[in-house]
Structure formats: C-alpha cells, structure tokens
Amino acid sequence: MRAILLAFLILLPTCVWATDGIPPLPIDLGSRDVSSLQRGFKAFQQYCSGCHSTHYQRYNQVANDLQLSDAQMSDAILTDAKPFELMENAMSKKDAARWFGVAPPDLTLVVRVRGEAWVYRFLQGFYRDPQRPFGVNNLQYPYVAMPHVLQDLQGLAEPILETETINGKARQQVVGVSSPTGGQLSATEYDRLVTDLINYLAYSAEPMKTQRQQIGIWVLGFLVIFLFLAWLLKKEYWKDVH
Description:
two-stranded antiparallel sheet; alpha+beta; 10 helices; two-stranded antiparallel ribbon; 50% helix
C-alpha cells in the first residue's frame, strides 16, 4: 500500500502537467552531457543573449568547461566583448526598459532560484493572447513582459479556456494550452532544444556541481576512515581506565 501511495505521489505532478497541455519534465533534465551543454550554450547565445545576460560567467571559463575551441567561442560572442570578459547582453538597460517596460533579468542563477521544472514549464507555456503587447502570454508566468523568442521553432499554442462564476459574474480563465502549430521543429525536437537550454542554465547556475559532488564523496570517505581511527584511539586511551 505504501509503495502504491508513493508511486501515486511521484506521478501526480506529471498528471497535472498533462492536463494543462504542457509536456512532463524529461527525466534526464539537468545532465552534464557536454554535447547537450554545447547545444544549450549555442541556443542561449542565439535566442536569449540579445536581451539576457549571464554576467556571473566569463566566456573563456565557459569555453574551457564546455570544451569549445577559440573559433567556436568567437563565433558565439555576438558583442565586441573579449573572451576574458563577463557575459553581458547586447542591450542597454535603458533601451530594455523603454521597449519591454522593465529590463530583462540576468539568467545566471535562474535555475538555482526558480528550479529546472519552473524554467521548463515557462519555455513550454507560451500561448496566443492578442491583448498582450507581443501577442503572447504564458501559462507559467502570466503577463510576462517578453515575446516568445522561440515561436518560430515551437509554433504557437492556443489557450484552453474555462468559464467560472465569481460574485455572480462569469469570466473565462486559461487552464491550459493546445499543441503548438506552425513551428519549424517537431514537439520532440523542440523539447530537446529546451532541455539543452536548461542544462546549460543549470551549469551556469552552478558550474562546479560535478566537482563538488566528486569532492564530497572523497570527504565522506575520509570521515569514515577518520571515524574508525578515532574509535581505535579511543579504545587505546580508555584501556588503562577500564
């Protein structure tokens, strides 16, 4: 019975996501696969870096971690920044505030702050909304002040509406999104693009995660050995007392 209940709790979020039209979170999200990180970095530079910075990272460190050649990194830098400089966006905050109403946030730590699942649902949650300035809204982050920069790739979904009555007045509420249409990529291809992009953002939020985990194993091993030696030393000290 406990096993059935645990399985239900694990699958419950997937069921919720399925009902609102957003696909479930891939189980391999957050991997440190170098090929995935390279594709994610390329996607970020191409579609995100015009507005968003990752100014806690440096180009040369990213190139070293992601095994990118000097030529590959030079092609990826879209500004006049040098390889040793921080990864700033190409848009000034003044222009960004004038165009979008608010300057786009830095994304270095977005996965650390929001979580991988939140970012995944955000990138999958855009839908058509003619009343918004850019013609789109977002199921995960309603009234977000940004366009759907991946619309050409994913296509655009339609909102799924339900009518609810509040204080005697009926109003429509968005409860989900339909399958996007008109995109250059299939649903599977777009899902892989989003996964690669979030993998890169997860790396950006904590570049030393893999090394930290490896060091942690050695530290725990040392503590186990030290505990055994401390126990032997304690026995030796207390031998005369007993």
